[in-house]
Design goal:
Number of strands: 7
Largest sheet: 4 strands, mixed
Strand content: 15-25%
Radius of gyration: 18 Å
Mean pLDDT: 78
Order of helices and strands: HEEHEEEEEH
Oligomer: single chain
Strand order of the largest sheet: 3-2-6-7
Shape: globular
């Protein structure tokens, strides 16, 4: 009985320390072995142009080495395009949830289901008010940037920063 009570109190203590995540782009939160316990399992509601990196629970069925290599590639290529997204005002988000909701301009929500795709990881490109684009698998940074330019109508030189004015 004491062991059962101790186990119950550990569960309460553990869940009590869990803090909700904001819209930060901490891709380490997508780490495959932690995807089951992640707060990123809560479906996101997207209200502005965004790229959502998804890593679903089904990816945990990959062999450990393949899973690690694939996740490292996904993270690396995403980090390469992140400055272009930031310069263009496009949010970079992460999720482990099978579902993402898009808030449309007419105050309704549209559901996007990510499970059952070719790969259980990839990129979801969203511009509320238009159709979404799902890119499954890992895209090299050049290919990913081409997809981003086409979808978001970005200029070819979207990584340049605004010149600083000095006086």
């Amino acid at each position: 009985m004491i062991a059962l009570l101790s186990l119950g109190s550990c569960q309460i203590r553990w869940s009590g320390k869990r803090t909700p995540r904001g819209d930060s782009t901490d891709l380490a939160g997508l780490v495959p072995h932690g995807s089951v316990d992640s707060t990123l399992l809560i479906p996101r509601v997207i209200t502005e142009p965004s790229v959502v990196i998804f890593w679903l629970r089904a990816a945990d069925t990959l062999a450990a080495d393949d899973r690690t290599d694939t996740f490292d590639d996904l993270k690396y290529y995403t980090e390469q395009v992140a400055p272009a997204l930031e310069a263009s005002g496009i949010k970079l988000l992460a999720t482990n949830a099978d579902t993402v909701y898009v808030s449309t301009p007419d105050s309704k929500r549209r559901t996007i289901l990510l499970s059952g795709l070719d790969y259980p990881y990839g990129y979801l490109l969203i511009d509320p008010g238009g159709p979404e684009r799902i890119l499954t698998g890992v895209y090299a940074d050049e290919d990913l940037m081409d997809e981003l330019r086409a979808y978001f109508d970005l200029p070819d030189d979207s990584t340049s920063t605004q010149p600083r004015i000095t006086t």
